[in-house]
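thread: overnight batch results

M.L. [08:02]
morning all. the overnight job finished for the chain we discussed friday. pasting input first so we're all looking at the same thing
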Amino acid sequence: MEKLNTQQLSGIAELVHYINDKDVTQCVLEKLGRENWTRAILGNCSYLTPEQEDVFESLGGYYTSEEIDEILHNDDINFEIAEKLKEQGVTHYLYENEEYLDEIREGKIICEGIDVGEIKNMLFG
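M.L. [08:03]
and the structure it wrote out:
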């Protein structure tokens, strides 16, 4: 099979993205051959929810559905952390600061009254 150009790869990626059958998707990818398994195609082969689609578009389309899920997961946790900080009367400069929220979520900053494990259990059981 000849090597596909960027436009062909893009068209196939879009087609594969909308195939709601994993076997058909696998068959298409096998026909393409390993040399054409680009990140663009593989990223578009994951089935994205509408919420994931929004994130995918806003990030420029360079993430897999697993990476998007992690971003959404972390955003949900950060939102809950920010809400708890607001309840404590913390300045908005902190609860609106994504880096600060990330540090708390990752356990690099410990805040009294915020149990990240408890937040995760509440959100994701």
